[in-house]
Amino acid sequence: MISEELLSIMCCPETKANLVLDGNFLVSTDKDSRRRYRIENDIPVMLIDESEVLSPEEWAEIMKKHGK
What we know:
Strand content: 25-35%
Shape: globular
Order of helices and strands: HEEEEEH
CATH architecture: Single Sheet
Radius of gyration: 11 Å
Oligomer: single chain
CATH topology: N-terminal domain of TfIIb
Largest sheet: 5 strands, antiparallel
């Protein structure tokens, strides 16, 4: 699992926005890009080409869940 300390220094490689930990994913707090990066074997895959773009509704639900 990703520690809070590590999460606090990580950012979205595309927008430099903060990230939130949502299950086995890191989700960018940037409302325009809405990128989600998977975590495999406790290692975040922070490649833009490997990320997923969430729908506005799904992104908003995740942000609400995390108080963002």
